[in-house]
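During the second year of the project, the team shifted from modelling isolated chains to modelling whole assemblies. The rationale, set out in the original proposal, was that interfaces cannot be judged from single-chain predictions alone. As a representative example for this report, we include one of the complexes processed in the last quarter. Its constituent sequences, exactly as entered into the pipeline, are reproduced here:
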Amino acid sequence: MSITKVTQHPTQNEELIFDRSQTGRIGYRLPKLDVEETNIDEIIPSELRRQDDLDGVPEVSEVDVIRHFTRMSTWNFSIDLGMYPLGSCTMKYNSRLNEKVARIPGFANLHPLAPVAGAQGALALIYKLQEDLAEITGLPGISLQPAAGAQGEMTGVLIIRAFLDKRDGEKSRERRVMLIPDSAHGTNPASAALAGFTVKTVNSTAAGLTDMEHLKKLCDEGGIAGLMLTNPNTVGIFEKNIKEICDIIHQAGGLVYMDGANMNALVGVARPGDMGVDVIHLNLHKTFSTPHGGGGPGCGPCCCTLELEPFLPIPRIVKDGENYKLDFNRPESIGRVKAFYGNFGMMIRALSYIQTHGAEGLKEATESAVLNARYVGHHLVEDFDKPFDSDPMHEVIFSHKKQTRKGVHTLDIAKRLIDYGFHPPTIYFPLIVQGAMLIEPTESVGRQDLDAFIDAMKAIAQETVENPDLVINAPHSTRIGRLDEAAAARKPVLRWQPDMETLSKTA
Amino acid sequence: MRYIPNSPEERAEMLELLGLASADELFRSIPADIQLGRALRITEPLSEIEVIAEMERLAAMNTASRQPSFLGAGAYSHYSPTIVDHLIQRSEFFTSYTPYQPEVSQGTLQYIFEFQTLICQLTGMDVANASMYDGSTAMAEAFLMAQRVTRKNKVLIAETVHPEYSEVAKTYTQHGDLKIETVHFDKESGRILSDDLSKLDDKTAALVIQSPNFFGCIEDLESLANKAHEVGALLIVVVTEAISFGLLKSPGACGADIVVAEGQSFGIPLSYGGPYVGLFATKEKYVRQMPGRLAGVAYDKNGNRGFVLTLATREQHIRRDKATSNICTNQGLIALAATIYMETMGKKGLQEVAMQNAQKTAYAAKEIAKIEGFSLPFSAPRFNEFVVRAPKDASELLEKLRTERAIIGGLALSRYYADNPNDFLVCVTEINTREQIDNLVKSLKEISN
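Output from the structure prediction step:
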């Protein structure tokens, strides 16, 4: 028998599961049915039943599944592999202890509609986390129901809307303008639109801060419902005028919503509630280390002042003597934003994170996160354009300005970083910096790794001068090269079908 | 702090290099009057031993998690193969971000593509997205999408859609110009009341039907699709029990235009209500109106096939206030768990588990109906849930069952429907043994006397 060598190891050639499927393979076993079988036609008539025999659904063994996903997993970069400096995303260490406690059967097997007398532990945990987040943000009204940051934002602006409607009655109609800086996350305007607000854009100054004159001018135009502000803002700079900004908005009759995406720069150091902010969302999957999981799940608690507390989503989790209960009787509530009580599994992880750190550990994490970003900023300032002079907080922004004259752009630098073993930073965000590279190391990176990242960035700057094509054609080390995204969008192939390859290649 | 690699000495060196005397100086850009200036009033740092002990203490207070249970109503207790939870704990999956850099995210992108395909196969639809937060928010997004597609402003929703889903849809649409009207159910069959469909008119964007509905009754989706289409409305089908896909005719085959579902049944722990995973599928012609992320096929310059996130111009990071949805973070890892579940169970497993649910439920329904004073008020065919009418107040009966027999017998419908205080909803899955079912029947008999 002759052996043919494959050109690539099989782990690099893993097909779609549908191509692996073989009729008759089995990956499961259920107990035998232990009740008398009734003729299925008597239970569900045939016209209501599937007739397609689940056509196309794969048939594979347990071993096939294990190998399939293990092989595919090796094509991913991950925090556990190394520095993942995505600005605004806070890719910090996801502790195994958090994973372990979230899987305790008393939590994992608890049905959301279980009688509250049999679910006191879960309610106590939610209540405890609410208390800790109130202390961390300085905002005492809290709902953990929102499933992610964008839903927390939506909750926050719906609360602003409900407050204005109550305060101003019919006249609230004249107050529909939500101010949002040009540097904001796209979710901010999208969430504001859901609450029926019209978005007006606030400019940033050359120093990367909110343009106070422009803010005042917009407020003078009237109709202000509120402001949605990220702080530190999306270029990583603290809005030092935050108190004045809040005053201006309040004087204009509006409320201030803070996007808490960047709370990793503030925990234990400063609190939104002390700055004049009315409502904020947190991302437990950023600041409090619950895993990003390749896109989710998250948890986006909404924290607000006592004045706004009556408008939070129902049910509220409240303490009644020694017991915890669900309070549905909140007539001014904006309503429910999600079935049940939110992503409870993420709340367990976040509380485990908080308890493991304690007050001093949380502050230490904040300091280390800011120090790491400052360190990277310090070392790259010679080689890359740093558009703002101010000291960065937990993330630092650069642009491709020094490299474009050689034809090298941010995307190329990002792809070349992959060859050096790093995940690229957030690129082309925020939109106010052309060719932005937003670098957030987080506290979870040690000095050697920071130095290696700095060396890689410097090497790329060097390559840009000496051999720009090397950078422009990167990455060179991956399973596949740059993919033609434009072609993919022109004729989208969004599911497997037996003739998929032919379909997509004729695109 | 053991999660922070740099030692205090290393940090001091780094500060010195930056010309800073102390860590406090890192925060000079924050005005002093808004700095906290004191320690947070939260716990001292706890060791692993202490955190685990505290969490175990709380978990032990959740007595309901250990009792035989017949609760369903949008969250279901099912078998999950061991490899599901094992595989999602691989670092490469759970500690990665949204796959914006495809060259180092092909693992995530390929499973999303498989997930989208499997959801299409099960729902009978053309395209599915990479997930929504849960079934309830998926339904709310479907309302908004139907409004965009039809440019009409009325949605008719069956009273038998999960009540919490309806509440979420109301929250999402309260400031749009969408009118939501309710279609009532037939008190005999438990299905939608045909006469009430006269509310369908040429202003209707969508008819929204859950099947199996909140009472467990399977709706005649084909005739409902025809009625919706006659007036130019879309049919939105809501499924809270995804295991039913293995046995019931797919919503797509019945004529649905949008299918939304809760995917928790696909191997996801109950976890007191989340994280779960929302499924969202539609027809190809509506793809550019869809919310959420989509993965598609792409090629590199050497012709190698890979996957990328595509059609992003629908999304908030490009379209901002004109986006089809504000969603960004979704339920990626839970979608992975569901994908592993569906592939491990495979064609045969999905069919067998659905069949076992239907059989065990039929057995339980038959036995409960035999108890004196108990009846099953609805005649429509059922999958794995059904309403029981007790001879006395259902909340009291269930509480007695819990405290005296340590059984969670189901959900008193008075939580959501005021009309019949004696009604409760029972769910039976492959997890419930015959012994548990027989014990439920025996206990109901004894305590209702």
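Chain A touches chain B through 207 residues (CB under 8 Å). DSSP finds 17 helices and twelve strands in chain A.
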